Amino acid sequence: MNLSDIGVRAETEQQQGAARQLAAELGLAMARPDKRFQLLLTCSAKGLAVCKPDDPNMGGLVRVDFSSNTSSHRLKQQKQEMIVRAVAGKGRTRPKVLDATGGLGRDAFILAAAGCRVTIVERLPIVAALLGDGLQRALHHPVTESIAERIDLIEGDSVCILREMQERGREIEVVYLDPMFPLSRKSARVKKELQVLQMLTTEDNPDDGGQLLQSALAAASKRVVLKRPSKAPYLADHTPDFSLTGKTIRFDVYLVQK
Ligand SMILES: C[S@@+](CC[C@H](N)C(=O)[O-])C[C@H]1O[C@@H](n2cnc3c(N)ncnc32)[C@H](O)[C@@H]1O
User: Fold this and answer.
1) How many domains would you assign to the chain?
2) Is 236 inside a domain boundary?
């Protein structure tokens, strides 16, 4: 999708200034009645959200909200989450994690809730803006504040950032990867969010899971955890040391010896 297909609007007069600033930062136009935009970014009192105005199946807004009911439910049962077992193993210590495919930050937030220090990397500026906005709100919410404090966000390409961190000798214990895959996931909510992520991912920036996996294996000091659909083949034919498999998704774990 071209940036010219994405507009920015303010929900009320009060958010006009913030909307204009965001449009300038992201190189986007302000929404106007004589142009149809495929996606609209909306600045509102509830935070930043994105919607697909012409698609009736995409009603509603996608925003990063770590205090929503779905997030709260996952946070309460985070210790049972398969992702936590895949990333932290059986030990009580919680590793430092680099989430190299940030997206809307749901997985990173679960890992931070379980006690991991998480650096999120997201390369799409609009997605990074949604994520940054959600993290800011989480820092000001009593339930999510202490979790959000364990998260840093970097906007950039993980392949470059992993290389830079390695060169600077910065230790990354675990790299977590969740590259986009074409299979549909069941929940309508997830589908809506994935649709937005997929729309923003263009031929100029295809998700290259294989290259990410190579970079992650070179940079991690303990393990690389890769999320896949449960029936998908191993990424780039690279067999993991073990996998944790659920109904729809699987975590392939690559142990690193350095
Ligand atoms: C399926 S989503 C991840 C969803 C995320 N795990 C969550 O819980 O919301 C994949 C995301 O990874 C990002 N991505 C893909 N390749 C990347 C790279 N090389 N560097 C940084 N981000 C990348 C995409 O832009 C997309 O937002």
Assistant:
1) 2
2) yes
